[in-house]
Amino acid sequence: xxxxxxxxxxxxxxxxxxxxxxxxxKILYVGSALALLxxxxxxxxxxxxxxxxxxxxxxxxxxxxxxxxxxxxxVFSAVFLTRRISAYLDLLPSAVELRQVFDELTAGSNPxxxxxxxxARPRRAGGVYHPMSRSDPSAWAAYGxxxxxxxxxxxxxxxxxxxxWEDGFTFGALVSLTAVVLIANWWAGSIWLVGLSTLRSxxxxxxxxxxxxxxxxxLASLLMPDLPSVRTCGQLHKLSNRYWRLSRHPVPLAxxxxxxxxxxxxxxxxxxxxxxxxxxxxxHPQLGLPxxxxxxxxxxxxxxxxxxxxxxxxxxxxxxxxxxWRRIS
Length: 329
Description:
By secondary structure, this protein is mostly helical.
């Protein structure tokens, strides 16, 4: 029943993301088309208004109002779409589901999403600058829309003697407003497009998970005291992968009389891994981890661990930060 509910939640969030991304991209499309029309009207005519369809007339001097309203809509749509993406990733979708959503979004005709190349990775680890690829057609659409927006909002129009600029307060006010609108749109576009890119990067992270024995660092990660701090979809899939690999490629238990070499686990460490497994399974049932750990057979025949070693009755925050796990790192 829980699996069916989780699948239903994921399907619902997928539709919300697809619908939300389409609506957000349409705002950019409409704004870009309108900006291009305003620029053409400024350069090709000396009229004071832009007429759309013979029914709607927009004063060129007041067209900035429309761009401000579209910017507000873009910012709100981007924020809520980013939340929807985070909610979807919290459901721990599989690699197939992640790729399905991303491909559906980038295969459409909207120029701001078509052919999107993932830009989830910042230029520097922990940085906020996410570069766009030169081979990304959606990046060039963003550059073109930015240029059209600036040209449409700047206080310049065609006069009898060529291009004429507004004077005084109007010039300073419109230039400042243009900068604010430009920054707001670029920020909003960045957060939701990087969010969509996260779907692709998470997919790549999952399909790249190894299948062989655990490395020393991977084994040490299962013993880290801050194991419950794992949060992202990719990290949780990586953790699940390590539990399954431990069952397929068991690490020998250490001989009490032979010390604790780096390639062996002590009984205490194995019980600690089991405790962490149960905690992760309880907090993240979407992972689909079985109730009985897949490496349970390693515990068969071992004496029960003391309550203090299994962490029973205490939260992870209350447990002492034991340092014996460092022996295998």
